[in-house]
Design goal:
By secondary structure, this protein is α/β, with parallel strands linked by helices. The protein contains 6 helices and 17 strands. It has 2 domains: 20-58 and 160-335, QueA-like; 62-147. It has helices spanning 140-147, 187-195, 227-238, 248-256, 298-306, 308-320, and strands spanning 24-29, 32-37, 50-54, 56-58, 62-67, 70-79, 85-90, 107-111, 114-121, 130-135, 172-175, 199-205, 221-225, 243-246, 267-271, 286-289, 331-335.
């Protein structure tokens, strides 16, 4: 995708907003751009539309560790089918990337008797994410619930409690980082949608860490599309309604469960789907999203749903009017 922009200093949201549904909402359609507050979302949807949300809950996925006497911070990205975990080992505090020189067989001590045995990079050819075998009584999620904290990057200068990193839909712990497109939703927003005849349906996709290099494709992620949601998606499409995905996570899950005709079926497992110009969206016809950093792979997914031209106009307008970026920032509704 040709979308290229410079994010000016000061546009990264540094803390949670006073009201979740009070963040700004840019509505981008073929007819033009409009500005609103997120609490007005329902005004831009129609009876028969279906909003699909991610019910994955955020883990306190960062934990302090020790690497042969040197402090480190471990980010737990995803649990694999054999019980090992993908992890990123970083310098202590808020850092820009992973530690250097990590080697297979290294032992990371986590405290409370817990350790990680580093295995190998996964995927091969990069040095950020590694497969590691945990030696943790009670399992990693229980350890993180006691000793972990939310993953935080440099644009958020102070820590916030895990509750600030949960959406109103959070039910099933498993995401390394918050599925943040859903953060501005409140019970009042959902009630307003239902009152207007807009249905809401769940999927699950557990997000991994987002700290990849610009241009790197997203890693495989675990997902589940329930049978009831598949039926609602297919019914909405057949009746002429729009399928509005809340976030790139929901888009990836739904498109991973679709056949070549765009019919969705119940499915679960891992998805390595990468949407973009060569793989346009077949199911999702609208998208609620936050604002992504320059070079992020998510930008190609947005274009796969809404078209590059509309995404470029929306991003230019957001920069011009100083919308706020990242998980605590403002929102965009793309309706191509």
């Amino acid at each position: 995708m040709a979308l290229d922009f410079v994010l000016p200093q000061g546009l990264e949201a540094a803390e949670p907003p006073p009201a979740r549904d009070g963040v700004r909402l840019l509505v981008a359609t073929a007819a033009g751009l409009k500005h609103a507050r997120f609490g007005q979302l329902g005004e831009f949807l129609a009876p028969g539309d279906l909003v699909v949300v991610n019910t994955s809950a955020t883990l306190a996925a960062a934990a302090d560790g020790d690497r042969a006497g040197a402090p480190v911070e471990v980010h737990f990205s995803a649990e694999l089918d054999d019980g090992s975990w993908l992890v990123e080992v970083r310098p202590p505090g808020v850092s820009a990337g992973p530690v250097a020189g990590l080697r297979p067989g290294e032992v990371i001590t986590l405290g409370a008797g817990a350790t990680l045995i580093v295995d190998r990079p996964q995927p091969a050819g990069q040095a950020r994410l590694w497969r590691a075998r945990p030696r943790i009584d009670g399992g990693v999620p229980a350890f993180l619930a006691r000793h972990g904290r939310p993953i935080r990057y440099a644009y958020v200068p102070r820590p916030w409690p895990l509750a600030e990193y949960q959406t109103v839909f959070a039910r099933e712990p498993g995401s390394a980082e918050m599925p943040s497109a859903g953060r501005p939703f409140t019970a009042q927003v959902v009630t307003d949608l239902i009152t207007r005849g807009v249905a809401v349906a769940p999927v699950v996709l557990h997000t991994g860490v987002s700290s990849q290099e610009p241009g790197e494709p997203p890693q495989p992620e675990r997902f589940r599309v329930p049978e009831a949601t598949a039926r609602l998606v297919n019914s909405a499409r057949q009746a002429g309604g729009r399928v509005i995905a809340v976030g790139t996570t929901v888009t990836r899950a739904l498109e991973s469960a679709a056949d070549t005709s765009g019919s969705v079926r119940a499915r679960h497992g891992w998805t390595d789907l990468v949407l973009g110009p060569a793989q346009p969206a077949r199911v999702v016809t609208g998208l609620v999203t936050g604002w992504h950093a320059p070079g992020a792979s998510h930008l190609a997914l947005l274009a796969a749903v809404a078209g590059a031209a509309l995404v470029e106009r929306a991003y230019a307008e957001a920069v011009r009017l100083e919308y706020r970026w990242h998980e605590f920032g403002d929102s965009c509704l793309l309706l191509p």
